[in-house]
Hints:
Elements: E1 19-21, H1 24-31, E2 36-43, E3 46-59, E4 67-69, E5 72-76, E6 82-87, E7 93-99, E8 102-108, H2 112-147
Parallel strand pairs: 3-5
Antiparallel strand pairs: 1-6, 2-3, 2-8, 4-5, 6-7, 7-8
Amino acid sequence: MSHNPFPQSLPAPCIVDNGLIVNKDDMRRLLGSLTRVYYIHSLDRQVQTQGEGYVLEVFADAGQATLIANHALYINVQSFDYLHLHQSPDRETYFDLIQDNRQLRLMPLSNPLQDRENSDNLDEAALEVMLEQVLAAKWDVQMDDEDF
């Protein structure tokens, strides 16, 4: 019988509002909840560019670049060594993507809770409009049939 000095399985990390994330899947899941952001791109702590944009895609592919242009962000987590999750004094979360001397800071301008509520309301409103259009079209067809 052999004795293993290491535990068979370690618990998975638990990071709440502050910490370092190196697992690319964890980075992708966390950034995937972002929509509208303010970004600051820095090299050697010198701001290169900054602006507002929408996170359109978060992916992991060593053959593709992270792209930011025309207010659109396509974030490849493979472009970065790790993600540093922070919380501001106002208790707002922001994300620093780090690769050597490069930092891409993402500060959410939207709240997933509010986005979800608005999305639910929008879906209901959109469904109501579509239902009204379908019923109106059906009535138009019935009236056309009666004319013949």
